[in-house]
Design goal:
By secondary structure, the chain is α+β, with helices and mostly antiparallel strands. Helix content is about 50%, strand content about 5%. The chain has twelve helices and four strands; from the N terminus they run H-E-E-E-E-H-H-H-H-H-H-H-H-H-H-H. Strands 1, 2, 3 and 4 form a four-stranded antiparallel beta sheet that branches. Helix 3 crosses helix 4, helix 7 runs parallel beside helix 9 and helix 11 crosses helix 12. The protein is rod-shaped, with a radius of gyration of 57 Å.
């Protein structure tokens, strides 16, 4: 819509402008649909159908959701009528007041499309658009996300690129596949580098061990060990009078003496002498 179309803008003109926005975002290949714009008079009940009444000549607010492939949640814009109403343009005020559902609804839908595809719609503005700090902000230079993912040199660098892609709403299904493949490659490379480092340290330790000379490895001599054994003490000589008596021998001698006497035979002298020795205390 142009300035000349203000007084004569029809519903078809508004629909055509909105269709132009959708055509632009469809060209990105990531368009996944837009939900019907909903209106509310109290902020609680929302409906895509709104009818002007004496109590509510204009809606309180409107909201619209746009879905983008690769983005988990839809981009949603909730706009208050008082904030969107073109107060600085009397011509557009008249059109908005006469057809609030069409003009206000299209305005909210365009805001949602811009929120989801800001890089594609940053140059599009309509006469009834309000100054928007997000539109006025400098647009960062376009980045080649596919190239940055493919050429990331470290895991940290790759994760940083993927985080930036999320902020820029540049994540897509194919890019996520490429990200996971590259992440696997970099993780494997980092593991191999760590293994090489461990092997290098082990080799250095083995080299130092082999560099020892026999003198360095020779153990410290110790003094000879002398085993000390206790000397065997001589057995004391016990006098005969203190030696223990042999009771069996005494009994045998006594039996021999008694036998000789009972048969009137002489007792041998050796027996008598032995008997006397055994009888001594």
């Amino acid at each position: 819509m142009t300035e000349q179309q203000t007084d004569t803008a029809t519903d078809e003109d508004v629909a055509k402008t909105l269709a132009d926005y959708e055509r632009i975002v469809q060209a990105t290949g990531e368009w996944n649909g837009r939900e019907a714009t909903e209106f509310t008079n109290d902020g609680v009940t929302w409906s895509p159908v709104w009818v002007k009444t004496e109590a509510h000549p204009t809606p309180l607010a409107a909201r619209s959701r746009v879905h983008r492939i690769g983005v988990l949640y839809p981009a949603e814009e909730v706009v208050l009528w008082d904030e969107a109403f073109p107060a600085e343009n009397p011509d557009w005020q008249k059109v908005w007041t006469e057809r609030p559902r069409v003009l206000f609804g299209a305005f909210t839908a365009r805001r949602a499309l811009k929120a989801a595809f800001r890089e594609a719609l940053r140059d599009r503005r309509e006469p009834d658009d309000l100054p928007d700090a997000r539109d006025a902000a400098p647009v960062p230079e376009a980045r080649d996300w596919d190239l940055e993912i493919a050429t990331a040199a470290t895991v940290d660098e790759l994760k940083g690129v993927w985080s930036d892609a999320r902020t820029a709403r540049a994540r897509t299904g194919p890019r996520e596949v490429a990200y996971n493949v590259r992440l696997t490659e970099l993780s494997a490379a980092a593991m191999h580098a760590r293994d090489r480092g461990l092997r290098a340290v082990e080799a250095a330790l083995q080299k130092d061990e082999h560099a020892w000379t026999p003198d360095q490895a020779k153990p410290t001599p110790h003094p000879p060990t002398v085993e000390l054994r206790p000397a065997t003490a001589p057995r004391p000589r016990i006098p005969a009078q203190h030696r223990p008596r042999n009771s069996e021998m005494s009994a045998a001698l006594a039996a021999a003496v008694s036998d000789a006497e009972s048969h009137d035979r002489p007792v041998p002298g050796a027996v008598r002498r032995a008997t006397r020795k055994q009888a001594k205390p």
